[in-house]
Amino acid sequence: MAWEFNGFEHPARYRVERSWPGRSLIYTSGEPPGARTLDVGFEAAGEGAIVTVTGESVPASYEFDELAAGVASGWANALRYLELYLSHYHGRTKRTAIALTTGQFDFDAALHWFEPGLKRERWLDVPAGELQPGWRFDHHFVWLWSAIEGTIELSVFQGASGEHTLALRAVSWAADPVAGLDRRIAASVDRLSRLLLS
């Protein structure tokens, strides 16, 4: 069994190394000595569960502090998506549209362009009235998008080689594919990239 993070240039494949039903899943990716391990733990808590994700093999040196912060933000974001799926869209098919760009831009400055208002309206091809507050972490900013029965998310992160990447992702659980969504997302990222680098 494998778990694949897709939508990026180089998908990461994790295989299930060990499983303790109801307690823990251990995933690994790559081969030693550079193998990465993810430990996903589950603990009963009243009517629900507490999910804990621990990642290993992220170097602790100064130049990887930003990478580690991005990983922590990414997992917090993923768990909020899991909560949204289970509470509103359980059993539905998920469709994703994503566009990426790289450049030398500041993380906070990029995410500021996703705040409500005129700056966002200059580049994002989504009517403001269709968006409701979602959640925000250090590197991820998510709005609930009612028209597609899902979300739109701006994330900014540093890759392992140090480049900065900006990603705009729409996630839809609508019954039918949203026409033109990939084109709208790509065009929006192109406009934002030009604004950030001008």
User: From the alpha-carbon coordinates, what is the Rg to the nearest angstrom?
Assistant: 18 Å
| Tally of helical segments | 4
Shape: globular
Report the portion of residues in β strands. Answer: 35-45%
Across the major sheet, the strand order is 1-2-3-4-5
Extract low-pLDDT stretches: none
Would you mind describing this structure in some detail?
The chain has 198 residues and is of the alpha+beta class. It is 26% helix and 39% strand. It has four helices and ten strands; from the N terminus they run βββββαβααββββα. The N and C termini lie far apart (45 Å). The model has no long low-confidence stretch (mean pLDDT 84).
Structure summary:
The protein starts with a strand and ends with a helix. The protein has helices spanning 65-89, 107-112, 118-121, 181-197, and strands at residues 2-5, 12-20, 24-29, 36-45, 48-56, 95-103, 131-137, 140-145, 150-158, 164-172.
Write the SSE topology.
Blueprint: E1 2-5, E2 12-20, E3 24-29, E4 36-45, E5 48-56, H1 65-89, E6 95-103, H2 107-112, H3 118-121, E7 131-137, E8 140-145, E9 150-158, E10 164-172, H4 181-197
